[in-house]
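quick one, 282 residues, struct below
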Amino acid sequence: MSEAFEGGGRLPAAFMNPGTSSFTDFLASVNPGLLPGRRDLPQGGSASHLTPEATTIVALTFPGGVVLSGDRRATSGNVIANRDMEKLFRTDEFSAMAIAGSAGIGIELAKLFQVELEHYEKKEGQPLSLEGKANRLAAMIRGNLGLAMQGFVVVPLLVGYDEPREQGRIFSYDPVGGRYEEHRFHSIGSGSVYARGALKKLYRDDLGEEDAVVVALQALYDAADDDSATGGPDLHREIYPLVDVITDEGHRRLPTGTVADLAASIVRGRSERPDGPTAPVR
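---
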């Protein structure tokens, strides 16, 4: 059933009814072809030919919040497709997500998730809890299963500040929508193995905010040192990792100048100790 509107056209009933608080469900009923997982793909195409791959992301908690950081490189096979890609997205005041995998699908998923949270808050008059956000993102990833089976895999990382618990939290996902809470730190993407090794070495439960940011940047440097798909700080082009911090005051992105100073300090330190800082044995 549809309703008439000015100009003689007709609106689908979904536009006129109270409907669901999920924008994704609304879009599925009105125009499912706009959803990433419902797109028709060219025959014979593959993820490596149609969209570049986003690479390494790291996240770690500290008392009072969480840090999310990502390198800027995107690759297409053995070619650098983009040197300054943005892989971190503010999803609402107290959460952010980052993507690894098929870049085009991942960016679209992140933007759709932003609208999903805005739509819910407008319909319900209050924001989703962090648990609710994590569950809603899992459902959206499951909707991309068809594309994932064809090689267009997107693996996001969701972080946020949980106001009732007064702490930062990290959620990881698998390509079929499985949701897992990670504790203390986590990394995804092609350089994640190397980044996670650095995080294990440098992480402490009593890190301050700035120290947590430095640990994230050191982990990305280690990933870039061993993974060709991960980009390190590019001092000549002035391309640096992106860093988001979320606390009880909300989300903020660190200014480029601040990250540049920290990155330059790390690069200077690596000139003397190429393998980076060491952790105490005891």
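The radius of gyration is 20 Å.
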